[in-house]
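Work through this:
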Amino acid sequence: MILDSENCMRFRIILLTVLVELWLQVLLSSTEMVEVPIIGRKTQRIVSRVTRGLRLHKRQLGRFTQHLKPAKEIDPIPEGPKVLMPRISPEEMKKFIDQAADQVRFRMESTEPSIYRSGAVQKPGTPEYYASATTRIKVEAKNYSRIALIAEEATRRIANA
């Protein structure tokens, strides 16, 4: 069946009307306003008809809210001095990054291989391996990638400049 422009336009309007009707039915039928008890007070919430029956039994309500205590009032925190970021030109930033990259390259190409050559290797399953894995609390110990090490070194150099 070949549709001319008038029939094609009618078809589009009918299709659009049907889609809008279906969309409105889904919106109106899937949610409703119900009173939901939240921490001892009833509040109206929009909930799905599917989940509206999923409520806690009155004996279970205390389990999840018994640890909540009233908020404590504290004095406002005094404002500290506003520290502005220093103006760093792109040339200075490139200089800091190049210095940091050189330092990380030196560390990766000479320092760490010399440690490895000295025989200081941790074998999985040994007490030393587990002790070193559990005592790493510094962020520097977790930055394994070269980019992260360069960023860390550049930040240190900028802060000390």
